[in-house]
Amino acid sequence: MKHLERSLLQGVPPDLPELTRAVEFQQRAARVGFDWRQLPPVLAKIREELVELETEISGDGPRERKLDELGDLLFAVANLARKLELDPEQALRGTNRKFQRRFGIVETELAKQGKCPEQATLDEMDAIWEQAKHDES
Q1: Contact 49, 40 (CB under 8 A)
Q2: Fold exhibited by the domain 18-86
């Protein structure tokens, strides 16, 4: 057996955001053919990882197993972003901004009713959320 002198994955900066690191690992592995050529297997992998996470959530296994399965799901989603030539950090940044904007609308609308989020029901907050979402489109 030949001794490995240097891994293809060496040199990926450890201080990169983890989604970006995942994409870089996957790009390097893809250079040597360790990659799916089409999207259907990537999407199937995401579904598989989601089922595995759901199984861990429904069981009473250790927290570490849930954490591991969540990481696998995120890694698979990062792979989808890579295959779509989209930056997962940019995608998440945009979604975070959208969430912040919409939740701000929830807070503002509740304040107009003399309430804070802690005093509202999920149904009330969700109705405002859905209206904000509708108004944006």
Answers
A1: no
A2: Helix Hairpins (1.10.287)
Residues 66/57, Cβ–Cβ less than 8 Å: yes
Cβ count within 10 A of residue 24: 17
10: helix, strand or coil = coil
Q: Give the global pTM.
A: 0.88
What backbone phi and psi angles, to 5 degrees, belong to 53? -65, -45
Residue 61 and residue 55: Cα distance in Å, rounded? 10
Where exactly are the structural domains of the chain? 18-86, 91-136
Q: For 65-116, what is each residue's pLDDT tens digit? A: 999 999 999 999 999 999 999 999 999 999 999 999 999 999 999 999 999 9
